[in-house]
Amino acid sequence: MQPTNRSRRILLPVKMWFVYTTLFVALFLNYIPTGHLPAVPDFVALVLAFWCVREPLKIGIGAGFVFGLLTDIGVGAALGQHAFAYVLVAYAANELSRRVLWFTPVEQALHVLPLLFLSQVVMVIVRLMAGAEFPGWWMFFGTFVAAVLWIPLHYVLLLPQYQPMERDDNRPI
């Protein structure tokens, strides 16, 4: 099956300030106290996985570690719990980036789902090792919501890269 011209556009280079802004917005979304709502995804893991897939040479394990520590501090988790999980997500997303980019956003979401699930499993294991009780199976439901959010997130986060360098009224994009 040949890719269409519409699905394989050449994008402008990503601006790093935009990448970090989106990661900080995701961090603040994680800081919102949601209590025990079952369908709340891990926004930092989702955005981190997205940028590790899209820009594996610019975002990676270091960003995962730093944003993991910031998440641990902000939500009051055991220090290193999110950092460890995000480092694993960043590593796996970087390794899979060349493969995942060949697929449509829906298929990409199916590839990213196990990575996000892995991060939740790692966080539960760290909590159990620290002496906490099992939080329940509902905690993993947010992973599926995050995979569904991958599809609109794909278009929203790539929107600035579709903008032309100079404005031309005769240009289609």
Total DSSP E strands: 0
SS summary, helix count: 6
Structural domains: how many? 1
**Beta-strand residue fraction:** under 5%
Order of helices and strands: HHHHHH
| Bulk shape | elongated
Whole-number radius of gyration? 17 Å
How would a crystallographer describe the biggest sheet? Answer: none
What structural category characterises the helix and strand content?
A: mainly alpha
Helical residues, percent: 55-70%
Low-confidence stretches: 3-7
In angstroms, what separates the terminal alpha carbons?
25 Å
Instruction: Give the overall pLDDT as a whole number.
Output: 87
Protein architecture, described:
Helix 2 crosses helix 6 (141-158) and helix 5 (105-129) crosses helix 6. 28% of the residues are buried. The longest helix has 25 residues, at 105-129. The protein has one domain (3-161). It has 173 residues and is mainly alpha-helical. It contains six helices and no strands. Helix content is 61%, strand content 0%.
What's the layout of helices and strands?
Blueprint: H1 16-31, H2 43-54, H3 61-75, H4 81-100, H5 105-129, H6 141-158
Helix pairs in contact: 1-2, 1-3, 2-4, 2-6, 3-4, 4-5, 5-6
Structure summary:
Helices cover 61% and strands 0% of the residues. With 173 residues, the protein is mostly helical. Helix 2 packs parallel to helix 4, helix 3 (61-75) packs antiparallel against helix 4 and helix 4 packs antiparallel against helix 5.
